[in-house]
Amino acid sequence: LREQDLSMRAGLYTSDLPGESAVLQVRRDSTAFSVPVTTITNEAGGLSHLYDATLFLVLVLGLTTLWWGRDWAAWGLSLFAHATLINFFLFYVPLPPLAAFAAVLLNQAIVGTLLPAGLYISAFALAGPVITARLRRFFHLVFLLVLLANLILLCTQTIGYVVFGNTMLERTGVTGLLFAISIVIPLIVLLAALLGADAARRLRLRWILLSLSLFIGAIAWNNLAQLSDAFSTRGFVRQAIWWAALLCGLAGLLYAVLRKRVVSMSFAINRALVYGIVAALVIGVFGVLTVLLENTAIGSEAGVALTVAISVAIGVVLEALRDRINVMVERIFFRKRYEAESALRRFSRECAYIERSDRLLDEAQEEIHRHLGAGASAFYEAGDNGYVCVRQRGEPMYPERIDVDDRAFVSMRADREPVDLRDVTSALGDEGFVFPMAVRGVLGGALVCGPRIEAYTRDERRLLAELAQQVGTALHALRARDKEALVTALARGELDLSTARERARAVQSVR
Predict the structure, then answer these.
(1) What is the value of pTM for the model shown?
(2) Rounded distance, CA 63 to CA 74, Å?
(3) Of 56, 131, 231, 272, which is least surrounded by CB within 10 A?
(4) CA-based nearest residue to 94, from 11, 26, 179
(5) Cis bond upstream, residue 396 (ω within 30)
(6) What is the rounded distance in angstroms from the CA atom of residue 336 to the CA atom of residue 373?
């Protein structure tokens, strides 16, 4: 190997470009020969269609999770899918030997890191709070060590073979074992999460765990083939099993993404319909314009001016047009969700006219659970040195009292914006959202909405924030009315001292 020139060693290590000519140094016994060789195309036969099907499924998975993903579970899968595509591209694109050598190094340094990292990110996002902090730190440490060791050994192996003509690491197969471990670790994380997950989360994990097991098992099997012929995928039966595991795993993963709601498909379909109709209208207008210009005896300059004018007009009305089409699509194709959101908006407008604070909170909670299917909800009001739970429904149960400097409430006082509990450390847990109830810049309370099987969409979160604000304003007005009535009664002398104190305590305390 060391007697080959650099280009030949690079060609031996990588996929050769068809038609490349080189001189191969061969030794037989004690005699050396220089043999001219020319690379030829390796016909994949029927397997090329299987590669095409694999790439297509990976592409669909990557684009679906990238465009319509709503959390790190989807974005991790998107990173994994796109890294897989880049891996195929860098390995199989025809390049001259030295360029192919650089592509292999790039693939090992970047793609070989991003592919298992995407799986790992997705696994932990799907696992949620089931994995304890200590176990998380352990998994993080092991994964980083395996990833770093694999990266160093892979690059050392490639550079050693091509630059120095050394095949020592090439023979060991340790890199294949390390890569197999790095992609199996996410499966272990998902399995640990499945054992301790609740029923709702378990439904989501089963399909993804099964599909990833098939797909990752096929990848790991292929990499372990470097260790021993016992792991080889050669032969008709082994090839059939390997391809079946690979394709079934990818298809199952795509099904799990769509069916088990790792991405918000209703949002995806909504946007596809809206922008498809908008595009059709715009193309239709330009088509009609083109016909008019072709059949009208006007100059070319006037035709260009008319085209520009209509383009500007379409741009001006496009936003309003999109909004109207969006409402139409919601009403026709997503009527149930449209009616639920309309009911919540109607309650947000009407809640200011409810005369009793207890009825206001009961009605608000009922509307939230009826129309959004929240697993749990709670209302908190500002009390002495913290926030007191005044209404609670569903599981999990929230604390009766929250410290005034709880991070979720500190964030809401600072920004007056909803808080994703995954982003802060709070006594309310690490799943769900908290929506501020602020009046004139003062945080008087909050609405907590717990997790559900399907994550809240951006429109739903915006609607809940509006509802929390309106309920907070109405509640503040009712509390102020009670205090005003007490002051008026005292001014008129209608209350004795003990009755006044009792009324004052009732008004002051948070029920």
Answers:
(1) 0.57
(2) 10
(3) 56
(4) 11
(5) yes
(6) 13
